[in-house]
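@channel sequence for tomorrow's demo:
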Amino acid sequence: MASQVIPWYKKKHVSQVKTDYAYHHSKHVVKQQTESRKTSCKSASQVQAQATEAMAEPAYTVPVFRQRTAEETEEYQRVTSNVGKGLAVIQEELHRMRMATKAQVDSIAIQREVKDLMRKSGDLLEEFPKMPDFLVALRPHTVWEKTPVKLFCTVEGNPRPIVKWYKGGVLVNPLDAPGKYKIESKYGVHSLIISRCVVSDTAEYSAVATNQHGTATSKATIIVKRPGGATEFCQLGLVPHLTEIHPSKLEVTLLERFPVSFGVEGNSIKLVCTMVVVPDLPNIPPLAQWYRDDKLLKPSKLVEMSVNGGAACLILPHLAKDDEGLYTLRIFTKDGTTEHSAYLFVSDAAPPVAGAPGAPINVKAFDINSEYVLVAWKPPNTVNEAPITGYFVDRCEAGSDTWVQCNDSPVKVCKYPVHGLSLGRSYHFRVRAVNKAGISRPSRKSDQVTAIDAAESERLHGTDEGVPSAPGKVVATRNTKSSVFVQWEPPKSQKNLLGYYIDGRAAGSKDWFACNHKPFRHNRFVVHGLIPGETYVFRVQAVSMFGLSEESQESSPIAVEPALATPSAPYGITMLSSDGSSITVAWKSPKHCGGSKVNAYYIDKRDADTLVWKEVNLSAVTERICTVDSLKEGTFYEFRIQAGNLAGVGLPSAPSAPMKCEAWTMAEPGPAYDLSFSEVRGDSLVILWKAPVYTGKSAVTGYFVDMAEKGTSEFVTLNEEAVSHHYLQVAGLQEGKTYVFRVRAVNANGVGKPSQLSEPVCAKALPGTKEIVAGVDEETGDIFLSLEACEICETSKFEWSKNYKPIGDCPRAKVTAKGRTSRLTFTNPDKEDLGRYSVVVTDTDGDSSSYTLTEDALNTMLELSYSIKHPVVPLKHSLNYEILEKGHVRFWVQAVKLSPSVSYRFIVNDKEVTSGEGQKISHDVASGVIQMTVDHFTRANEGTYTVQIHDGKAKTQSSLVLVGDVFKAALKEAEFQRKEHTRKQGPHFSEYLYFKVTEDCTVTLACKVANVKKESAFHWYKEDEEIVPETPPNVVSGACALPLPLFSRKDQGVYKAVLSDDRGKDTSVFDISGKVFDDIINAIAHIAGASASDLVMQCTPEGIRLQCYMSYYTEEMKTVWKHKGNKIASSEKMRIGGTAEMAWMQICDPSDKEKGQYAIEISDGVTTHTRTFDLSGQAYTDAYEEYLRLKAAAFAEKNRGRVVGGLPDVVTIMEEKSLSLTCTVWGEPTPEVSWFKNEQEVASNEHTKVTFDGGKFASLVINKVTPEDSGKYSINVRNKYGGEFVEITVSVYKHGEPIPEPKVGQPKAATPAPPKSPAPPSKTPAPAPSKAPTPAQSQKSSTPASTPGSTPVPKSPTPTPPRSVKSPTPPRFMKSPTPPRK
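structure tokens (generated this afternoon):
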């Protein structure tokens, strides 16, 4: 028999009727329970009698041993005790057969009882009038010839409607064609079966339901196809020729079914149903069809279908609002079809512009011809957006991605004729909606159409302009815990009606949300995805091609709650105790309460060997435990439980396992029971239980809790020591895993039997779970615990416990609830209220939480509570004072908050003062400041100041004691401010002298002046001596500065700046000494240290020097040199010094000990700037060699031969006179001396005499000079380290001639001496090179002994320039190279 799923928009209609009935008749249910249960018992007795008769048939014979007398039973038991294994096997087989038969009989009894209950329910509903309504409408079918077809529908109404079937408007009479038609009506489901269809059975069939309140009709078309014709077409996609195993021959059972789904435009969604297929053949999957709003879907780019791997899958890769609707999966099976339906909602994607409308939907092309194509569409739903003002239509040629706008201005109706198409070309169309905010996203493009001439075409012309009228009354009713059933009256005019848009909003909110995004054709709709327990209102708009109607009136507010129904069956019946004549049983509450609190339980019992159930209680049992009396000892009994609520009594539970009535005598306790869970989180939970009814031979002292993962039998005991209370916090769980628990009671005699296993519990918190919050009410000051439930229903209650014991009507606490929130308020909190509080929200999936109230937390809340109950104006700042300019004193206090009605008063020395002469009192509500200003503060103002504040119920006061030293300091400051005010009446310093250091380390003394004029004078002084800066001070600019370049200790002293004019004088003094001097040096060091370069090595004749260049250096800076981390002190070996540009450290006569890392540290008091140099390895070797070279060169320079003095530059002498050229020479060893004339060596003779006395005095004497003696004379003094070459120009004139102007000769280039012993003197001097100018800054030209050179080639003498001309010849003491002798 094929399973049938009722469409979602019709599914809950029956439940709604039951709900309304239950609401009106709930108060009569409990009263009628006894009568109903008696009737039920009578019906059950009849069923059992029939079952007994059935058991008497040959298929089953009642064993004779079950009908023995007492004596026969005793004999049977004696024989049975001695029977072997064979008899035990027979007994097990007999028991199995008995239980199987009993289960079958129970199933039959339950089915019959259900029929009776439905019949009775129908009788009860007769009082509620209702016109016929199709809950499940007829659906069209396409079948093959000679195959059967079944049309079925579900109808509701009161009185029960009569259904008649019509074919093409003609009544179907089964008697007219015996065996052709079969009409059935069961449980409100009406069906018409046509056997062996023929082509002539193709027609429109209708089912007409009628009662005294009206008529309803449902229609569907049956198409019968003949497989053989070439023109025949299989609309179902079935293969005409059936192979040996066809998909329609498979047995298919749906398992997991796709739920109501929600998508967004542009995204994708996947609908999946899993199934079990028998036989499961990989190459022959089941035949599945997908429908959207009863229209068959076919695979395309927008719809992907697959059936494999035990699942039927539908993928919509590019969602649009056109995809919204009721999706149905129909699977063809051996027995017919099985199907499942659920709604898919598609919401608008984010608009391109905020406030723009949603995209239009269902774009189609009509009236296709060569002149134009008429494009029509459906408008989008607008909720909070501005109204739509029009639409733009775009077209695109097939195969192209270029869209062209067809209309220049928006069209206001939902259709538009597109002109200008090319004949024979194919097009797609799309539409965009426009409002004042912008343009919407484009709709899904239409199917491809071709502009061709059509002989006949259906013309779509709208002549009636205008939108439809608003729908009528909207009624919302309960459906499920997350959905509401909405129905409404259609508009009066339904012409061109395309459907309806349904909007909803939460009660109390002004924001509407769209419930559907595609016009819905029927006038009833199920709104899904609502928040459980929340209250909503709804409205409806009608949709046509001309736009949207006005909104309907809003529905009445309705809370999202499940429809009322009877509770499900209890379960988990367990035996707690037995005394031989009674059995105590307990059970678990139904998993589904039916939307109303379970307020009654009914227990039935029966002998395990019989089928007849007997009622145990006629009056309802409210607790889930019951003791059944009047039992026969030694007999096995079975029990079943029924639960009742306002809607009635639910189905009975499954029979319990057989329980033997025999007295319990064991010493250990019986099982604990009623295991439940609270505060389930991802890693923990709390398990609770009740104490065993049977305690054994001693009192129960504790409990052990065992845990195992679901599916395993490996239990782990969670507590090493038995716990005395009836709960246990379990931690260390793995999130997402499922566990089962059991509890064992302990007494002095041992551990009792374990409890029944708990229900499996998954370690995972409910979505949106919140914890208990402790707080203090801001208005009343009450201390409370509060919980906001994550889900709630109409029957939910908040059950509070302390240490997991129900609080109930406790005088120490009061429980209140409002909406989703429950509050436990303490009436008089103290230490007795400390403990662990927990709350459980009933009739939910386990929403619960706990909070441990500690002493510290309670004390903190008690303090806050006291402050609220005894309000005090909170103060940000207590009473204080400040000195204002002019010497005024302001007393002020600041409150956290003040109201406009605040009152206050100031009391000074126990006397209230008010605003008046000498003081001013005021307040500011915004800032919370209350103040009193005293204009003239004198010694009379010493004392105690108090301000008292009253603001509503709150009050406070603050005092300030202003006496003694505190008052003297305040008075002194007030007098100073008065003087300052007087000072500022004339020219004055707005900022006194201060220093600043520029980036180039220049120290500047600066100040700022105010109230000056051009005539104001400014003078600088140091130690009372005036300083006149290069740039005169400009007082008009408001700032004056005195630079102190190259700052050092010499700049210490007292500096003074004086500003004056005819209005007065002001002075600022700045003492640069002590800490101020150190601060300036540190500021210089900060800049200089940051600019310091890396250490640089420089070799000198004295040793190796390390240098650090910086913007400025002075010895007052805190500079430390270090070698290998040790500080270096200045000594003969290590000399430390510096210049304005750098700091240096000289290593004199270095050795290997001086190798290593060197560093200089420049400290500014905060930061230390460090620069390092590694003087080791090759760096030290190269430096040491360079040092030796320079040292040798310096020694040579010091000891070379030279002319100390005595020779003139130019000599003018008259002939016949004697000329004596004498000079002092020096050198170590004693130098050799040679004289030259015109670069030729002069030999000693009678005319020219050369002498060298004592190795110190050299002379050249010419007797009776003649003009031929004129010329350039030179002396060459040299030893092994070098020498010097000095020239003298001699001019001889005749007697009576004018004295000639002296001429100076050209300087000679240096001629270095040989490196070792000098060459022997030669009498023939070699002339020196004529072009070797010596730098002007050198006075002598030396001949270094360490640099060997070749002998210069003599050249002709150079003319001597006039004496008055500036000559390049070096002066008298210039070092001159000595030419070597030949």
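heads up for whoever presents: The chain has eight helices and 90 strands.
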